[in-house]
């Protein structure tokens, strides 16, 4: 799991993401030598790019992009503010669960930096452009942002549990099944 490393925490001996790993013009961060022994381009949503740019400002390329000393304390602070009790890997699982409803399996696998392994289709036939992958990151970021929007004007309380969205083909299948039952 590389999510924590984005914040500067060195879990599993991976190097922290440095300011120099950010390509603000291209809207991406390169995660070096990941668990599957390859570099991974993390294509940033508009929201993530804005955060990365703010953190990179006035920092040297060799400095951590997110200079968090103790990721556990940061996560504890976030949990206290949000009224949750999620742990580090739970964030990754939550992201994957949200993304699974919004993007194709091939895009999700690449977003999660999972190797194609024995999947011949993904490994040899299905190609995804950077634009397609970036669109996947953006739709997930937009969904999370909308789910975290205040419940009413002036509120700082987060909405609980975003509504599940289904893919268009699933909605059509549900409609046709409902019509057949009637």
UniProtKB/TrEMBL annotation:
Note the SUPFAM superfamilies from the entry.
Answer: DNA breaking-rejoining enzymes
Q: Which GO terms describe its molecular function?
A: DNA binding
Basic residues: which segments have biased composition? 162-173
- What positions belong to coiled-coil segments? none
Q: Which UniProt keywords apply?
A: DNA recombination
Task: Give start and end of each Tyr recombinase domain.
Answer: 18-126
**Which superkingdom, per the lineage?**
Eukaryota
A Gene Ontology annotation in the biological process aspect, one of them, is: DNA integration
Q: Where is this region: Disordered?
A: 155-182
How is this protein named in the record?
Answer: Tyr recombinase domain-containing protein
Q: Which organism is it from?
A: Hemiselmis andersenii
